[in-house]
């Protein structure tokens, strides 16, 4: 494992930072905890990649608050795509038409 930041998924929505710190404390020093409200996931940054690996190996697929945790190395944040494009809602798709649904460009036999 290269990084020291972990993705922690499938958390109960009621989980708070103190509970996460208590859960990860036996595996080393916790540099930061960031929970995403009402989404059921968050991020924990440990002080070393070895501590992060140990926490991930020990806690992944364990039960916490009645749910099975999913813990993985956090991926770098990707830049968000802007919505809108050429001033049309939803990018360059525009409105209407298309070949889906009934009618459209269906080949008739």
Report on the architecture of this protein:
With 109 residues, this protein is of the alpha+beta class. It has a domain at 5-73: RRM (RNA recognition motif) domain (Alpha-Beta Plaits, 2-Layer Sandwich), CATH 3.30.70. The chain has 2 helices and 6 strands; from the N terminus they run E-H-E-E-H-E-E-E. The chain has helices at residues 17-24, 49-59, and strands at residues 5-9, 30-36, 41-46, 63-64, 67-68, 70-73. It has a 4-stranded antiparallel beta sheet, with helices on one face. A two-stranded antiparallel sheet has the order 4-5. A hairpin with a 4-residue loop joins strand 2 and strand 3. It starts with a strand and ends in a 36-residue tail after the last strand.
Quick summary:
The chain is of the alpha+beta class.
Annotation keywords:
single chain; 109 residues; Alpha-Beta Plaits; 4-stranded antiparallel beta sheet; 2 helices; globular
Topology:
Layout: E1 5-9, H1 17-24, E2 30-36, E3 41-46, H2 49-59, E4 63-64, E5 67-68, E6 70-73
Antiparallel strand pairs: 1-3, 1-6, 2-3, 4-5
Question: Which band does the percent of strand residues land in?
Answer: 15-25%
What is the second-level CATH architecture of the domain at 5-73? 2-Layer Sandwich
Q: In CATH's first tier, which class of the domain at 5-73 applies?
A: Alpha Beta
For CATH, the homologous superfamily of the domain at 5-73 is named as: RRM (RNA recognition motif) domain
| H-E string | EHEEHEEE
- Give the total of beta strands: 6
- Roughly what is the average pLDDT, rounded to an integer? 85
The SS-based structural class is: alpha+beta
